[in-house]
Amino acid sequence: MVETTPRPQPTTGQLVDRFGRVATDLRVSLTDRCNLRCSYCMPADGLDWLPNERVLTDDEVVRLIRVAVERLGIREVRFTGGEPLVRRGLVDIVRRTRELSPDLELSITTNGLGLARTAPALKAAGLDRVNVSLDTIRAETFAEITRRDRLHDVVAGLKEAADAGLGPVKINAVLLRGVNDQQAPELLAWAIDMGYELRFIEQMPLDAQHGWSRDGMVTADEIFTMLEREFTLAPASEPRGSAPAELFTVDGGPATVGVIASVTRPFCGDCDRVRLTADGQVRDCLFARKESDLRTPLRDGAPDEELARLWTVAMAGKRAGHGIDDPTFLQPDRPMSAIGG
Q1: pTM of the predicted model as reported, rounded to 2 decimal places
Q2: From start to end of 17-136, where are the E strands?
């Protein structure tokens, strides 16, 4: 349940909102560009990408991460996009971020297309693990959803990531009604056979076309119904904490499957995330309608302590929840590809 009563503010040096939630997980979007055209994310002909001059440079990205880690208590950094593997400086950004602290948890969310050639370098640079978006293991369905015939590249990338030690390798899958929803059991069976951890995610209202509807979304309850036709699921014993996925053992374990029910079972009350867009804007929520600019003061010469102060102020006003069920809810202007997952 989302808490709506503000709590006393904890100590400084943390990204704390007025409900007492502390952000320790930073999602850093490195680009809004992507080499797939998934139907639930963007139109077939793509989007108008951010101009290069608005995108943070590698040095600017690393500096803001350093401020977050050294001054604001960030303990986990995940690189996202768009598709982060298309960012030329990715490996060096990972290496420089790792140099900030050996204790940071570093991961990446990717579509996996370029993973086969980059996984060893990412591991050597200090990346811990990968999350790969994959909605089907049928080539024809993959091509229908992504508008690209590239399933073989994703499968190869997953294997290379596992071989490089970027584990546990996790897969994120979105089910689309009438497209791949009936394939959920076979995707889970394949993931278990390959040793990957699968997470199903409810489709969220973050598409560029603003065509999302709750009636068309495959819900968590429907996902459970489909999986339980072929598997026995039981709640995992480990506590969920701030993790978005509810975990379930499959056929007695040790394999598990997760369901991220962002819409029907929101977990906003335990949220510990903050997002930095590719153009240097702080977003306190995936569904936020406003952003806070760090790029301008950064380029105007603001010292680290001022950037930290601005970041702290940006987080203080975070809402209690995403409000998707509220009749006044408005989808963010930016789609997922421009926000960073």
Answers
A1: 0.89
A2: 22-23, 25-29, 76-80, 105-110, 129-133
Which residues does 59 contact at the CB level (< 8 Å), separation at least 6? none
Q: Where are the domains of the chain?
A: 15-339
As given in the structure block, the two tokens for residue 116 are 């086969």
- Give how far the C-alpha of residue 96 lies from the chain's centroid of Cα atoms, to the nearest Å: 21
Tell me the torsion sign for CA atoms 194, 199, 203, 209: negative
Q: Is the dihedral of CA 210, 173, 245, 30 positive or negative?
A: negative
> CATH 3.40.50.1450: does it fit domain 15-339?
no
How far is CA 42 from each of CA 23, 33, 132, 291, rounded to the nearest angstrom? 29, 11, 18, 21
Q: What is the pLDDT of residues 218-263, one digit of tens each?
A: 999 999 999 999 999 999 877 665 577 889 999 998 999 999 887 8
Largest CA distance in the chain: 59
Report how far apart the first and last C-alpha atoms of the chain are (Å, whole number).
23
The span from the CA of 245 to the CA of 238, in Å, is: 12
CB proximity list for 249: less than 8 A, separation 6 or greater:
233, 234, 235, 236, 255, 256
SS3 for 23?
strand
